[in-house]
Design goal:
This protein is of the alpha/beta class. The protein is built from nine helices and 14 strands. It is globular.
Length: 248
């Protein structure tokens, strides 16, 4: 028998805490453009211990359950759905949540992790104790229409950002009063930075899913079964707790 066919996973490599090289964290809070200028990771780097993240751990566990090696296929996060349908890779596994704009030809697995938008402030700021305290405050968020809808009722001065890195840079530099981002990112950063404080619970509840082409029905069923087994064995919960505690 030949070797098992690799599972090609589409991903954005500069996307901590989901998929990233440890070396990319150097200057995380002092160089907001650093991730943008990082060179693409090599195949050797992707296979080595320096390529880490919540989604990397999920992918490795999924690989073990399916009995298939991983082939990482680099892609801009905003192009994941398009390039999945073009056949560049077999699945999306990179902090992906289907939206109203997701083509009907893409199907989502059961969630492998839950998330929501979470508020973070500077630790010394005692004025903001709840999301209700954000009214008239300068609040940064990722430039996403779905995020804007969730935050529009807060009465805050909303400021969009392209990256979480730049978002936290301006928060620490006091150009923002608060930031709102995905809860795994916020909890991971707060666990590694005593200068940050989480406020309350997530403002909404969504899931991260594996995305597949609807036509790949057999692979979809295999991944669904693997995720169910991973959940029952406590693997997914252990991965979540690891990264919410800082990834160590």
């Amino acid at each position: 028998m030949g070797a098992a066919k690799p599972l090609r996973i589409g991903f954005e490599p500069n996307n901590p805490p989901w998929t990233f090289l440890v070396d990319q964290l150097q200057g995380f809070d002092t160089d907001p453009a650093g991730v943008r200028t990082a060179p693409p990771p090599t195949a050797q780097q992707l296979a080595g211990p320096g390529f880490v993240g919540l989604d990397v751990d999920v992918a490795k566990a999924l690989s073990a359950h399916l009995g298939r090696p991983i082939e990482w296929v680099r892609c801009n996060w905003y192009q994941l759905e398009k390039q999945l349908l073009e056949g560049r890779f077999d699945v999306i596994l990179n902090a992906w949540t289907p939206t109203r704009q997701t083509p009907a030809t893409i199907v989502a697995s059961a969630p492998y992790a839950n998330w929501g938008l979470l508020v973070v402030v500077r630790s010394e700021d005692e004025q903001i104790r709840s999301y209700k305290d954000l009214a008239k405050k300068r609040v940064g968020h990722i430039a996403d229409p779905a995020v804007l809808v969730t935050l529009s009722s807060l009465g805050a001065e909303l400021r969009p950002y392209e990256t979480e890195r730049a978002l936290l840079y301006d928060l620490r530099d006091k150009r923002l009063d608060a930031a709102v981002a995905d809860s795994p990112f916020v909890r991971w950063r707060a666990a590694n930075d005593p200068g940050l404080r989480i406020v309350g619970e997530p403002l909404n509840r969504l899931g991260y899913h594996v995305g597949l082409r609807r036509q790949d029905a057999q692979l979809f069923q295999e991944i669904q079964a693997a995720l169910k087994a991973m959940a029952q064995a406590g693997e997914l919960e252990a991965i979540r707790k690891k990264w919410e505690a800082g990834g160590k």
